[in-house]
Specification:
The protein is α/β, with parallel strands linked by helices and 256 residues long. Helices cover 46% and strands 15% of the residues. The protein is built from 13 helices and eight strands. It has an eight-stranded parallel barrel, surrounded by five helices. Helix 4 links the parallel strand 3 and strand 4. Helix 1 runs parallel beside helix 13 and helix 6 packs across helix 8. The longest helix is centred in the C-terminal third of the chain and has 19 residues. The structure holds 2-phosphoglycolic acid. The site of 2-phosphoglycolic acid has 13 residues, from strand 8. 2-phosphoglycolic acid (PGA) binds next to strand 8.
Length: 256
């Protein structure tokens, strides 16, 4: 596979400042140069843990990237409680998760919001990790591909090819997130292939061929190999299994 694999840990709303430093240090202690030679390893802690986590990794010279879990599209101003792209950039973020199903479902984030965030991130030099995925009801209705590809189209709307090329897509079926119920490798592969085909329709074969499409939803050391063996799955966006350095390391190593 010519695409560089990626393992990204989404810590969600876990780890206080002190706990985040400990976990970052434990992951950093396991870092080997081949990780960054052959793949991208990313950790996405809560906003206030971004700086301490990036400080630990920089101090150790561990080439593990730091990403945020959300962002607001305006650069500054009267937006109480929000965080902007320049703020993320200054604390060392090179990636940012956008459109996670928890943000869409619990905080009312729309496809249009996701598109604005993607544009702001690309404009500021941070790579978006765009999350898409269907509910159980959509899957049972048999309209998964249509639903997910519509999310992809909305997230990428109005981008030029070279801007789209900066993005990563994460396919995360909502029914598999935090439930222990993983999509089978075949189910995940089918949707990831449909996502790539949608990107090809919008931006051409070259952008689609180079784009990383990750799977997320109860990925763990026990099921990672079957998922990573699929031709259209280039890595994982990991929740629960990214909160322990041991299991995160195993997931990283499954990419070699
Ligand atoms: P999970 O979460 O691995 O705990 O299912 C994945 C995600 O929501 O990004």
């Amino acid at each position: 596979m010519s695409r560089r694999p990626m393992m990204a840990g989404n810590w969600k709303m876990n780890n206080t400042y002190g706990e985040a430093v400990v976990l970052a240090q434990e992951i950093s202690n396991r870092y080997e140069p081949r990780w960054s030679d052959r793949m991208d390893v990313v950790v996405c802690p809560p906003y206030i843990d971004l700086k301490p986590v990036s400080t630990v990794l920089e101090f150790d010279k561990s080439h593990i990237a730091v990403g945020a879990q959300n962002v607001y599209w305006e650069a500054s101003g009267a937006y109480t409680g929000e965080i902007s792209v320049p703020m993320l950039k200054e604390v060392g973020c090179t990636y940012c998760i956008v459109g996670h199903s928890e943000r869409r479902g619990l905080f009312g984030e729309t496809n249009e919001d996701v598109n604005r965030k993607v544009k702001a991130l690309i404009g500021g030099g941070i790579s978006p990790i765009i999350c898409v995925g269907e509910s159980l009801a959509v899957r049972e209705e048999g309209t998964t591909d249509e639903f997910v590809c519509a999310q992809v189209k909305a997230a990428f709307a109005g981008l030029a090819d070279h801007q789209a090329a900066k993005c990563v897509v994460a396919y995360e079926p909502i029914w598999a997130i935090g439930t222990g119920r993983t999509a089978t490798p075949e189910q995940a592969e089918a949707v990831c292939a449909a996502i790539r085909a949608t990107v090809a329709e919008m931006f051409g074969d070259q952008v689609a061929e180079n784009m990383r499409v990750l799977y997320g939803g109860s990925m763990n050391p026990g099921n990672v190999e079957g998922l990573m063996a699929q031709p259209n799955i280039d890595g994982g966006l990991i929740g629960g299994a990214a909160l322990k350095a041991d299991s995160f390391e195993q997931l990283v190593k499954a990419c070699f």
